[in-house]
Amino acid sequence: MSLPPLSRRSVLALISTAPLTVNFAHAEAQKVIRVGIMAGEDEDVWRVAAENAAKAGLLLKIIPFSDYNAPNEALQQHELDANAFQHGPFLEAQKKARNYTIVPVGNTYFAPISLYSTRWKSPSELPQNAKIGVPNDPSNEGRALHLLQSLGVIKLSDNAGLTPTALDIADNPGNITIQELDAGMVGRALPDLDAAVVNTDWALKAGIDVKKDSIGNEGLKDNPYINFIAVTEADKNAPWVATLVKSYQQPNVHKALTDVYHGAIVPGWS
């Protein structure tokens, strides 16, 4: 699926709220590092990371976005110095589509994508002709279909890769129907579906009980979907990058992740 180009004006229009700046008197304000994240729970987590950075002499301006395509465009256009919202397959898809020069520099967290249902207790209970919702963007749809394969619901073709679509389903013993929906809507559609594969952050926003309603989860081992902080290739060796990553990879940020996401997200660093 090709992605439409985003203009400078459209990128700035997608910033959802005023920037959050943690300004401590002892922080060196010679350079303010602008970090793009997704609006919502991550703002509370990054507030803690920004406090850590300020104590290390690095002033952060946290800029929330409401559209997943915007933070990479803003980073590429140097409207951001870093962003933290994505995993590897998502970045690779965007780099391929838009020739971005963006690289990961440090892990943040792992948010398992899960299969949820309010009607059935396990994947094996799904009836014939069940309707299952999945996100419709390439990386998350592929992730959802791989989860369904790992749970024995479908089998993908051998050459499906990381971003399969429903057309890559080679075996569908339950004759399920895949309903492709916007990532922000698939969780809200759960009452009308037999099950839905939903990203953790969107599941929380949709009011899904991420522990009670989950009937299948991804595992962390060898998982390519760990989120990270990213910068442009030109900045990857800048001195502030190591401070930024270290400010995030701290015990108090670990605690914030656990509290804010109700234990549904785990740190992606050792």
Give the terminus-to-terminus CA distance: 35 Å
Oligomeric description of these chains: single chain
- Strand % is 15-25%
Q: Count of helices?
A: 9
The total of beta strands comes to: 15
Tell me the radius of gyration: 19 Å
The class by helix and strand makeup works out as alpha/beta
Query: H/E element string?
Result: HEEHEHEHEEEEHEEEHEHEEHHE
Inertia-based shape: globular
Helix content: 25-40%
Strand order of the largest sheet: 1-3-2-4-14-5
Strand count, sense and barrel status of the largest sheet are: 6 strands, mixed
Low-confidence parts, pLDDT < 50 over ≥5 residues? 1-18, 21-29
Q: Averaged pLDDT, please?
A: 89
Give an overview of the whole structure.
It is a single chain. This protein has 270 residues and is of the alpha/beta class. Helices cover 30% and strands 23% of the residues. The protein has nine helices and 15 strands. The chain has helices spanning 8-13, 41-55, 70-76, 88-98, 138-150, 183-186, 200-205, 239-248, 251-260; strands spanning 20-21, 32-38, 59-65, 82-86, 102-107, 109-110, 114-116, 131-135, 155-156, 169-171, 177-181, 195-198, 214-217, 228-232, 266-267. The strands form four sheets. A six-stranded mixed β-sheet has the order 1-3-2-4-14-5, with helices on both faces. β2, α2 (41-55) and β3 (59-65) form a beta-alpha-beta unit. α2 runs antiparallel to α9 (251-260). It is globular, with a radius of gyration of 19 Å. 40% of the residues are buried.
Summarize the structure.
This protein has 270 residues and is an alpha/beta fold. It has 9 helices and 15 strands. It is globular.
